[in-house]
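Handout, page 2. Input:
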Amino acid sequence: MYTGVDKNLEYARIHKPIPEKKVAKTSLSPSSYHVNESFMKTQINKPKVSISKYKIANFIEKEINSKKWVPGPSAYKFSPRGESMITKGASRGWK
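Output:
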C-alpha cells in the first residue's frame, strides 16, 4: 500500500465569495426616453466623404516654389571682360 505523503500535492483552495456591487437605482420616467435618438444611434452611419479644394502639389511644384527667391539669369550684369568671353557655342566648321 501507499504509505508516503506526497509533498507536492495541491489541494483546492476555497475563497470567500466576492460581494456583489450594489447598482444605483435611477429614476427614469417614460418621458426621459427619446425614441428617435435611440433609434438613430442603432442605425449604421453612412461614411462622410470630403474632398479638399486645396490643390495637392507634387514634387516638382514644391521644388519650384522653394526656389522662387532665386533671380533669373537676366538679372545678373556681366563685366565688359565677361561679355567678350560669351560664345554662341561651337561653330559648324569646328572639329
